[in-house]
Amino acid sequence: MLLDEHHSKLLFAEAGIPVPDGLLVRPGDSRAPDWPLPWFLKAQVLTGGRGKAGGILRVDEAPDLPRIAEILFDKDIKGHKPPFLRLEQGVEAIRECYLSLAVSRDLASLVLTAGRVGGVDIEQSGKDNILVQTIPAGRGLDSYHVRAAFFHLEADQEQWPAFKALVERLYAAVRSHGLLLAEINPLVVTAKGEWLALDGKVEIDDNQVAQHSELDRFYAPEHSSHEERLARRAGLAFHSLSGRVGLMANGAGLAMATMDLLNDAGLPAANFMDLGGAADLDRMRTALMLLFGDKAVEAVFINIFGGVLSCEKVAMALREALDGKAPYKPMVVRLSGNQAAEGRAILEALGEDRLHIVSEIGQALDALREFDGQAPAPAASADTIAAASSDGMAPFPDGLPFDKGAPVLVQGITGRVAQLHTRLMLEYGTNVVAGVTPFKGGQSVLGVPVYNCVAEAAREHAIAASIIFVPAAFAPDAIMEAAQNRIPWAVCITDGLTQQDMLSVREQLKATGTRLVGPNNPGLIAPGRTKIGIMPGHAFSPGPVAVLSRSGTLTYEVAARLSAAGLGQSLCVGIGGDPFVGTSFIDLCELLRRHDGTRAVVVLGEIGGRAEEDLAAWVTATGFDTPVVGFIAGRTAPPGKRLGHAGAILEGEGGIESKLDAMRAAGFEVCRDLSALTGVVAEVL
To answer: Where do the structural domains in the chain lie, given as residue ranges?
Structure first.
């Protein structure tokens, strides 16, 4: 959650960080404060470049305040008009500098940055101006960090106590509020020798807000559109785009891949919408309200692959949301996977001409083209797929650590979701030997004994892997409990862990022998052997193709396509889509390097981060000779959009092409079209 300057300063003031006196000015406000002149009136927008765009104006006479405010309210700043302004008392500053604490994805650390000169051109100020220090997650802020920043700023000695207090308070706010960014630019020294945050920018981890609802006091709904506010209340990930086909899919990865398909097919997406893992009536009604209410939307595409989510339940919710009426706009619904046939039957029974039900994405695109007045695309040849599927693929061999019968522990086993997936794992053949829930020891779930803690379970059973189903606030502790008891693999399904928590977990795991998969992932499956996660077993089959993915739903989608073409899988792992995860693409490819039965690797990536580029560099450096097929979801996303996972951010132009170029340079077969991926895999085999 990105805060404007006003709300950033409210947070700073609560933390004891000095800020100028200020108040909020809304349209029509004409009240004048009692402060001495001059004052400064500042547009409040969630974008950079405000100063250069004329978004800060000086007020020298109190009667001029309404006129100057009207100028700013009419100001367009990179496509944003300020919903309100901040009025501040003028400050006599003798020096401006820069200070920030931020979570760095590239450095995988909290970082303290100090600059001798601050202001709007800080990025171009040169390396000599900037001092960057990483703050180890295991130790936190030390006095030497603060001293180094102070001496870099070349401040006067008498200013040291106040500077030290300011940095320590800023760090405390970052830690207690789960901040991803706390930036003071400029940080000024006043004529009285005091440090003052003249401007500020704060971003709070969305997962921290979800765990601590009191942080909603810093949320300013005025910065969001009506549609975005509706989606937020309903739990939908939603962003408006500039196309004409309304989009809804389940899972951020599938939603991004579908957006790419629409854009490439000349059917540009009007929005990004991730239904998530639930299809309740309220969420579906809100989704249809957004899609039907958008004047730019000419047709709607609902793309659902039922993994854990039931297509039948989606269809029932959609039927209820339509409330016996025909869709207001042409609608194509693709249902595939879990209970897809039942779901399609429910919708087909409605008998609506404007509701087109299909099972394949290609059929959906053809239907959308027909609504759009375009000719259908030519059918793809199945020759290469048929040739590959008849190529005597080897059965699943030995050599991977996930053998049939490997003993598995379930942490949080008495929870509703954990019990559901424990049953599904048992039905698949997974050897679930024990469960853990504090104070529930001695019970039994589905015939599995329950213990109070992992230590008790580990004394009674040899455990190869633990799967973790506990709320986000308790998941870091559960991961470390598994590691403390020397369990080789910990698979954390839980989503919503904060980035700072994950930095701490990763640091602590270095001293253990436990390898973490996740968090925020569907787990892993060795088809025909074992399943440790929530992946739908029906989508997978044994064979020679490893699938490594940052997206759960895309994993199911691709595995089902491969299986349908006779191209089975050796190992499928969702590494998680968060900025900081445990096991990486590189770790898994190192494991697969020694596995003769894996003849191809499919890497399903997403925009944001460097996981794919790092893998490409590793493949080149180590001579990894197993063919790799790469796919990136979200490559047609506009820069700066946040799409579902916290790590799915495209920060600037060229980011996607740089990612694709790195993969091509490493010899990957890069597939730009999800519907063509199976054919590409068949060719490399």
So the answer is: 21-89, 93-218, 224-371, 404-521, 535-685
Following DSSP, what letter does each residue of 124-166 receive, concatenated? GS-GGGEEEEEE-TTT---HHHHHHHHHHHT--GGGHHHHHHH
CATH 3.40.50.261 describes domain 535-685: yes
Tokens of 459: 């004394």
Tell me the average confidence (pLDDT) per consecutive run of 10 residues in the chain, 685 residues long.
96 97 91 92 91 93 95 92 95 94 92 90 78 92 97 95 97 97 95 94 95 96 90 87 93 91 94 80 87 92 90 92 90 94 95 93 92 65 41 43 94 96 97 98 97 97 97 97 97 96 96 95 96 96 97 94 96 95 96 91 92 95 96 82 32 64 96 90 95
| Cα 117 from Cα 187, distance rounded (Å) | 9
- Both structure tokens of 678: 């199976």
> Please, where are the H alpha helices in 196-280?
206-211, 226-234, 252-264
Per the rule left: phi > 0, alpha: psi between -120 and 50, beta: everything else, 222 is alpha
By DSSP bridging, strand 465-468 and strand 431-436 are: unpaired
CATH 2.30.30.140 fits 93-218, yes or no: no
CATH number assigned to the domain with residue range 224-371, chosen from the 4 options 3.30.70.2120, 3.40.50.261, 3.40.718.10, 3.20.20.140:
3.40.50.261
Cβ-contact 22, 6 below 8 angstroms:
yes
Q: Are 606 and 579 in contact (CB under 8 A)?
A: no
* Identical fold, 224-371 and 535-685: yes
In the numeric block, which tokens belong to residue 661?
Answer: 């170029």
Tokens of 22: 């200020």
Torsion sign, CA atoms 554, 559, 562, 563: negative
Span between the terminal Cα atoms of the chain, in Å: 45
Tokens representing 4 are 């404007």
Distance between CA 222 and CA 293 in Å, rounded? 20
- Check 7, 145, 223, 645 and give the catalytic one: 645
CA distance linking residue 407 with residue 212, whole number of Å: 36
The predicted structure's pLDDT at residue 398: 43
**Eight-state DSSP code of residue 77:** B
Strand 93-104 and strand 130-135: the pairing is unpaired
Please give the pLDDT value at position 391: 37
- Buried b / exposed e over 621-642, threshold 16 CB at 10 Å, is eeebebbbbbbbbbbbbeeebb
Residue among 557, 75, 222, 208 at smallest CA distance from 361: 557
Surface-to-core class of residue 247, CB atoms within 10 Å of its CB (0-12 exposed, 13-18 middle, 19+ buried): buried
| Burial of 502: CB neighbours in 10 Å, binned 0-12, 13-18, 19+ | buried
Residue 655 exposed, middle or buried by CB count within 10 Å (0-12, 13-18, 19+): middle
To which residue do tokens 């919710």 refer?
A: 317
Instruction: Looking at the structure, give the CATH architecture of the domain made up of residues 404-521.
Output: 3-Layer(aba) Sandwich (3.40)
Q: Which CATH architecture has domain 21-89?
A: 2-Layer Sandwich (3.30)
Task: Give the three-class secondary structure for 201.
Answer: strand
Chain-centroid distance, C-alpha 449: 35
Is 461 marked active-site? no
